C-alpha cells in the first residue's frame, strides 16, 4: 500500500539469500516477463517487478503518483531486509527512475507539492528511500519529449483526426516520403517547419487541458460559495483522445541521426496502422494525465530535468538500432546524468534489444551480461 493508501502490485523473484534487489518499473506497463529477469537471478540478485496503481491506463496516470507507487515498493523491499536496491528503468521507466532519484534525494518539504494538473502529489509527506544505484536500458528523454518528436503535426482538427495539412505530412511524397524498404529524404526546410508545427500541436492540447482544469477549478469555487448549480461542472473530468502520434521523420529518413536502426517506428514499419490505429502513445487522456505525462512543456518527468540530480552510480545501456532513442538523444541523456560514477555501453539491437541484423548476437543477453558485470564491479553482488 502506498502512502496515500492506494494498492499496488509487485512481483519479487528470488532464489534466496540475496543482499541486492534490482527494481524494475514502468509508469504505464506491468511487464512481469521482463527479459532481464532470468539472467539477473542467475547472477545472484533478486528482481522486483513493480506495477503502478493503474497499469496500461493513461486516464489515471500521473508521474507524481507513480513515484508514490515506486516508493511503496522501496519501503517494502527495505523491510524485507535487502541491503541494496538498484533501480532499473527500461524505456519510459528510465525517466521515472530519474524522477524518483531527484525527489527522493530532497528533503520532504522541498519535493514537488502539486502535479502539473494541480493535484496534491503527497510527495512532501511520503517515505521515499533512495536507491543505491541506477541502470538505464534504452531509456528515452521522457514521455513528453518522446511525443513531441513523434506526434503528427499535419492534424488540422483534434476532433477530426482524418483532416490533414498535406504540406506538413511526413507521408507525402512531395515532402520527401518514400515507403519501405527505401529511406525517405526530407529537406532541412521541411523538417524545420515540421518540428515547429509539432510543438504547436502540443501547445494547443496543453491549452485545452489547462482551460478544462480552469473551468473545473472555477466551478469548485462557486460550489464552495454556495452555488449548487455548479456541482456537476465541478465534478466533470473530460476524457479526450489524441490521434496520430507515430510520425517521427527519423523513423523513415534513416540519414537523420544515422544508426543501425531499421525503417519504421517502435510500433512497426506500417505507419498507417501505427499512426491511425487505436494502439499508440497518449491515445486516451485526461487533462491531468496529459500535462503530467505527455506534455513536453509541463511534465516533470524529463531526463534532462531530473538526471542532473542523480548522485548514485549509473549504468546506461543504449541499443544501436533503437528507433525510439536516437544517438544524439542518448548523448544528451548521458551528459545530463549528474554523478561522475557513470558508465555507458552500446549494444546492437532494437528498442527491445532484439537484433536488427539477424546475424548479430541477441542484445538482450548482452545487456544482461553488462548489467551483471557492472553490479559485480560496484559490490552489489
Which descriptors would you attach to this protein?
381 residues; alpha/beta; Rossmann fold; 2 domains; seven-stranded mixed β-sheet; two-stranded antiparallel sheet; 34% helix
How do you describe this structure in short?
With 381 residues, the protein is of the alpha/beta class. It has helices spanning 37-43, 63-79, 93-104, 143-150, 188-224, 231-235, 271-276, 287-294, 303-306, 327-336, 363-377, and strands at residues 10-13, 20-25, 46-50, 84-90, 133-137, 155-157, 160-164, 240-241, 284-285, 314-319, 342-347. 46% of the residues are buried.
Q: Care to describe what's here?
A:
The chain is an alpha/beta fold. It is built from eleven helices and eleven strands. The protein has a seven-stranded mixed β-sheet with strand order 1-3-2-4-5-10-11, sandwiched between helices. It has a two-stranded antiparallel sheet with strand order 6-7. α10 links the parallel β10 and β11. The longest helix is centred in the middle third of the chain and has 37 residues. The model has no long low-confidence stretch (mean pLDDT 96).
Number of helices: 11
CATH level 1 class label of the largest domain: Alpha Beta
Structure classification: alpha/beta
Second CATH tier, the architecture of the largest domain: 3-Layer(aba) Sandwich
Shape: flat
Q: Termini separation (Å)?
A: 29 Å
What is the chain-wise order of helices and strands?
A: EEHEHEHEHEEHHEHEHHEHEH
CATH topology of the largest domain: Rossmann fold
Going across the major beta sheet, what is the strand order? 1-3-2-4-5-10-11
Query: Please, what is the average pLDDT?
Result: 96
Kindly provide the radius of gyration, computed on alpha-carbon positions and rounded to a whole number of angstroms.
21 Å
Beta-strand segment tally: 11
The tally of structural domains comes to 2
Query: What is the H level of CATH, i.e. the homologous superfamily of the largest domain?
Result: Alpha/Beta hydrolase fold, catalytic domain
Estimate the helix proportion, in percent. 25-40%
- Biggest sheet details: 7 strands, mixed
Strand content: 5-15%
Poorly predicted runs are none
Amino acid at each position: 500500500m502506498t502512502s496515500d493508501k492506494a494498492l499496488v502490485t509487485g512481483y519479487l523473484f528470488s532464489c534466496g539469500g540475496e543482499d541486492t534487489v534490482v527494481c524494475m518499473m514502468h509508469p504505464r506497463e506491468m511487464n512481469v516477463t521482463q527479459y532481464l529477469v532470468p539472467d539477473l537471478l542467475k547472477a545472484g540478485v533478486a528482481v522486483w517487478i513493480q506495477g503502478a496503481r493503474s497499469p496500461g491506463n493513461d486516464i489515471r496516470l500521473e508521474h507524481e503518483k507513480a513515484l508514490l507507487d515506486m516508493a511503496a515498493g522501496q519501503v517494502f523491499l527495505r523491510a524485507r531486509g535487502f541491503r541494496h536496491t538498484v533501480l532499473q528503468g527500461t524505456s519510459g521507466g528510465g525517466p521515472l527512475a530519474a524522477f524518483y532519484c531527484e525527489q527522493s534525494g530532497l528533503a520532504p518539504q522541498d519535493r514537488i507539492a502539486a502535479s502539473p494538473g494541480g493535484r496534491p502529489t503527497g510527495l512532501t509527506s511520503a517515505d521515499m528511500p533512495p536507491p543505491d544505484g541506477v541502470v538505464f536500458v534504452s531509456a528515452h528523454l521522457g514521455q513528453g519529449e518522446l511525443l513531441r518528436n513523434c506526434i503528427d503535426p499535419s492534424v488540422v482538427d483534434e476532433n477530426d483526426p482524418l483532416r490533414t495539412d498535406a504540406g506538413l505530412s511526413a507521408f507525402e511524397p512531395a515532402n520527401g516520403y518514400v515507403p519501405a524498404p527505401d529511406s525517405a529524404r526530407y529537406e532541412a526546410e521541411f523538417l524545420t517547419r515540421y518540428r515547429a508545427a509539432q510543438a504547436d500541436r502540443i501547445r494547443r492540447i496543453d491549452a485545452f487541458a489547462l482551460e478544462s482544469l480552469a473551468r473545473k477549478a472555477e466551478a469548485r469555487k462557486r460550489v464552495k460559495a454556495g452555488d449548487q448549480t455548479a456541482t456537476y461542472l465541478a465534478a466533470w473530468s473530460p476524457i479526450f483522445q489524441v490521434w496520430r502520434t507515430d510520425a517521427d521523420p527519423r523513423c523513415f529518413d534513416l540519414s537523420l541521426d544515422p544508426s543501425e536502426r531499421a525503417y519504421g517506428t517502435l510500433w512497426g514499419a506500417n505507419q498507417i496502422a501505427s499512426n491511425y490505429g487505436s494502439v499508440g502513445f497518449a491515445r486516451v487522456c485526461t487533462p491531468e494525465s496529459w500535462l503530467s505525462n505527455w506534455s513536453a512543456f509541463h511534465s516533470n518527468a524529463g531526463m534532462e530535468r531530473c538526471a542532473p540530480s542523480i548522485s548514485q552510480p549509473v549504468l546506461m545501456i543504449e541499443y544501436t538500432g533503437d528507433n525510439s532513442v536516437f544517438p544524439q538523444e542518448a548523448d544528451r541523456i548521458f551528459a545530463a546524468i549528474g554523478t561522475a560514477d557513470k558508465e555507458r555501453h552500446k549494444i546492437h539491437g532494437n528498442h527491445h534489444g532484439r537484433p536488427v541484423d539477424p546475424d548479430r548476437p541477441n542484445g538482450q543477453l548482452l545487456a544482461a551480461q553488462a548489467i551483471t558485470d557492472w553490479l559485480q564491479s560496484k559490490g552489489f553482488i
